[in-house]
Queue: 2 jobs
Job 1
Amino acid sequence: MGIFDYAPAPESRAIVDIKPSYELFIGGEFVPATGGAFKSVNPATGEALAEIGEASAQDVDRAVAAARRAYEEVWSRMPGTERAKYLFRIARIIQERARELAVLESIDNGKPIRETRDVDVPLVAAHFFHYAGWADKLEFAGYGPNPRALGVAAQVIPWNFPLLMLAWKIAPALACGNTVVLKPAETTPLTALLFAEICRQADLPAGVVNIVTGAGETGAALVAHPGVDKVAFTGSTAVGRQIARTVAGSDKKLTLELGGKAANIVFDDAPIDQAVEGIIDSIFFNQGQVCCAGSRLLVQESIQDELLDALRRRMGTLRLGDPLDKNTDIGAINSAEQLARITELTAAGEAEGAERWSPPCELPVNGFWFAPTIFTNVSATHRIAREEIFGPVLSVLTFRTPDEAIAKANNTPYGLSAGVWTEKGSRILSMAKRLRAGVVWANTFNKFDPTSPFGGYKESGYGREGGLHGLEAYLDV
Amino acid sequence: MSEKTTAKKTAKKAPAAAPEAAASVTAPVGPEAASPASPVRLDVRKTYKLYIGGAFPRSESGRSYQVTAPDGTFLANAALASRKDARDAVGKARGAFSGWSGATAYLRGQILYRIAEMLEGRRAQFAAEVRSVEGLSEAKAAAEVDAAIDRWVWYAGWTDKIGQIRSAANPVAGPFWNVSSPEPTGVVALFAPERPALLGLVSVLAPAIAAGNTAVLVAPDSAALPAVTLAEVLATSDLPGGVVNILTGSPAELGKPLAEHMDVDALDLAGIADAGFATSLEQMAAENLKRVLRPSSAPADWTQAPGTARLTAFLETKTVWHPVGA
């Protein structure tokens, strides 16, 4: 070990108590699933963490019935002031149990503790705190004098930000007076089940929040259930499309937050060091398993060499390994399946003629890992420039003029996010206007806040989550 | 077609009696008018064509269909738009999107107001058309036209306000400037209801373009007549060509190509009365995640104040972040 190497600094796992098996959370009780069981795996080791109940169509039906009952009998009749207090209470308990949630999230998902501790969990608490305050102020939100809840919301969330996506879904739904049935991703159910315990600690009325675990079939049964008034989904565009077909012709209100292939555009006047940090955040945050990741770097031709040299140097300092180590920058890929997809797409990148580079990086033997990678000599037609990789893989393209940058950036069916790096204010504003994306980060990237609406253009989905705009998804307006 | 041919032939025979005939503008339309011996002038009929990219082409398919009054009286032959016409219209709408969405809200408002002015100037013509197409009383037809004009005025005033009421400066917990504001969705395919013929068209079209979208408007069956006259109003209101494209004919035929078109960003199914068909169009629209405004399950009352729902239906929200610092 050299003098500037880091000693291991693992966060203690003692704070979490992972049970051998978990049941469904329906009507305020943990009840056995009737659809069988599956295992949740620690992606950093490949070892099974717990047996998780798989919700059958009948279980989904029970959960929807419990949510309906809670809606009719309790939640829709409760004054907003009281709903607000429940949500504030939940926000507080999340803060109190923040470290436990962070550690459990890192174990189940594989993301570094630095992120779960400093980003995911604080944002989860903030999201509940923000929407808590909306519960008794809905008539001031601009949707008319008496905006009404929709009823029962079916919510299906992904594995990349398990608890944060839960918060994005449950907090506004409850604030607006809906009850929910939420299905966490099959590879990351543990924090959602711990959240169920938090609901019990908060004395949230039974059935207001129901959690059904399972895979695609469970989710399909949930969104297709006739007793559901609202469907909210975050995940792949392919599944989003399927859900849109399923709810077509019904009265269900639908919001979708889907895939992305964001351009991160760096102009020749950008401060190189800040831009490099921004690029690192844009594609290596959460191992690049982020729908709004800046997976296409568009660099102005005149600074390509300088920028890429600096980027490669910085990538050489990234520390990959144990997600629970406080010095870890890059954790594990969430599943063997996701690792296979990243591996397949990067192989296609090489086969199509792009040039691959990763810093020297030793990967752990067990678990699912992928070294931070960049591709240069990428053409707009390559699969790695068009398809969402959802991994720590950056495709580098170049441009000469702002017009060319816009044309390349918008040349995708996606439209979730984009980044711009330049010191010129008028150029930032003109680029921000012309980029067809729901979120534009200028001289920053991957920032999130409960007051800031998030969501896509085009095939990245529709509807917004966060802030005032996020209420619309859960109100009958 | 035979009707048109006859009219042409008769017109050719007319010149001898022309000076006197031209002087009479109140002549009744009918068999007597066609007699070369009559001093009464033969009216000049309008050819109802499509409106695509600011031009008035016939359907590329060469097809037309008869528009009749509720009592079956022949009114006109309208162009029966084809799938190819629909694709042409989408192309023109896409081409016009950058300019129209990039125009100032003030300019868009003035153009929409100009449309109201032009429509007002042709009130009598629209009233007659609506009356014959819908079989309405003179008073009811006039009321519908007035409501349609007023709807343009309502939306003209919204162009520079919708952005403000849908925008927000977001108080994020950090040193960032963070603003959300609405932007138009893109190319919207609008299926207008057949009744009320004019007010229905205007009620779906005006909000879509007021918000900065460009449109392909399908005017069903007999709504073709006021639709094409509306196109003439649009063509003389400084509205750039391609911002609105009007296809007359059958929603049953045009629904699929528009719902499946990958360069259409949104659908308004207001005029699709068949629930099963509306569902299948919504399913097709899922292929590229089009925004879909479903038809209302209860019969819509288009005379009611429209609110902002149709205006916001085809808006996206863009949020921009920038660090705050020295």
Job 2
Amino acid sequence: MILKAERLSAGYARIQVLKAIDLEVKKGEIVCLVGANGAGKSTLLKVLSGVIPPTAGAFTFDGRDVTGRKPNQLVRMGLSHVPEGRQIFGSLTVKQNLFLGAYVNPAKKERLDDLLESVFGLFPKLKERLAQKAGTMSGGEQQMLAIGRGLMSQPKLLLLDEPSLGLAPLVVEAILSTIGELRSRGISILLVEQNVNAALHISDRAYVLETGRIVLQGEAKDLLENEEVKRCYLGM
Amino acid sequence: MSDISHLVQFLFSGITVGSVYALIAVSLVIVYKVSQLICFAQGEFFVFGALTMTTLVSKGVPVPLAFFLSIIIAMALGALIQQVLIRPMKNTSVGALIVMTIAISLALRGLALLIWGRESHVLPPFSRGEPIQVLGAALQLQILWIVGITTVVLFLIWFFFEKTPAGIAMRACAENPYGASLMGINTQKTTLVAWAWGSGIGALAGMAVAPMLFTQYTSGIMPMVKGFIAMSIGGLGSIVGSVIAGLLLGLVESYTIGLISSKFSDTIVFALLMAVLVFRPNGLFSRS
């Protein structure tokens, strides 16, 4: 088990966004979070990466209780969050962005170069753009950079928030197929994706979130056949 | 003196004053980049740097040691102010924060009055020796120190922000604090370091010119204003822009004083600022 959340609750000011979430990600799994806008998916990822402290409940990462840890501690342990909207540093070069991904694990120069090479293995385009300012790249390239940057800390678990948002269909396909590639590199993935059909096809399991509660969970292939999921999220 | 030697003399004084404006502008930019805040107390660091070093040297501390001690004291003071007074206000408006930095400026000015009194203090030059004659103009050795220190500081800043992980992390924090925190960058620590840098550079400006000025507790006001003008002309967040603007201001002032009259130097500088704000509100060197 790489991640296990028990009765996790969180919110902003007096608004409770997450209500007693139980969730697991096993090693090597791709787990998908499905839900409408405002269901609490992004908030859940922010709690798991330490950006927002939970108001109740607990979660373990890699067997250790990490409730209340800060992002810098969690990144160092191997939990990397690729946030919604990419949040790359547009005024910095692609290379500087990637190096910042490895900020908490100051590696030797050769090791950094190895890490860069492994990112280029997934996204060859980034190699051509190394010296370019990140803000001048296309949306798809920026998303590749955001994922690549997230990989530079050598994560065991990657939290991916809406990686295909606002991208052209071909680019979406490319991004989603690399997610499968990441699993084969031994990285577990918790994925939030508005393209539910595609997401369920690459996931092992999924949770359906409605107004801060998990209302349905199971194997991804079973959820693809579930009548309610079909009606609400697959538009069938 | 010939006409040429006059023009060269004005060039020297322009570069001297311009270097000071450039340093103060850079110190403002560094704080501005991480805190989105113009720290109006920067002129007081100028005074504290100059007067701390003057006191240390007059007590017999060797000049190099006094130099580094004064910088470290100013950096510590800046970090302390950020930690104790600015940090607790992080969820308030920028307006409130600016008022806070004005209050800090006044408090530091009062503190300087208590410590050093109303008198003016002069620091001996960093090195002794006759001025060098260049085309009939006298180049004082302290000017070489000022230009040298400014060059070294600007190179270090460039190196820090372009080449070191800590510097790049600081830029990341300034641009996108949320994204930076996800990289595991400690945004509070980074802000603290930026304030320490800013205060140290402000102090350095005061120390470098202290042998050429009579420094007293109010001496930081005009350098702060001019540094701020340089920062505005240079485009608020741009280090390169504010350095060029600082030097430009110094030269404009010096030639105005020399060729027209000292009465007009401030008028022309402020007119320049107004013209830039009207015609290039994002600064002279911004691309947009």
